[in-house]
Amino acid sequence: MNVPLTPEMEKVVNEKLSSGRYQTAAQVLAEALRVLQERDADQERKLADLRRDLQHATDQLERGEYWEYDADTIKQLGEEVKTAGIEGLAKEPKPGTR
To answer: What's the whole-number average pLDDT of the chain?
Structure first.
């Protein structure tokens, strides 16, 4: 198979060859394809995880496992989060102490 390369792609291949890490242009392109396959597989895993999480959230909604907030309760939630954060920071050691 012959694949034409743009001048920019050819420059990248030549730079990789000049580095000494690769012996042939075919090795450079094989590595590029391997990295592309890894990236595609990683994206597929992330998409599957997202779909699973979305289904889990949808199931929780359907079972009524959620809280509704209004102006008062959202303010209360904010205060609880703030208090928990302040308490968490207070437990951390101070710089220079142990």
So the answer is: 95
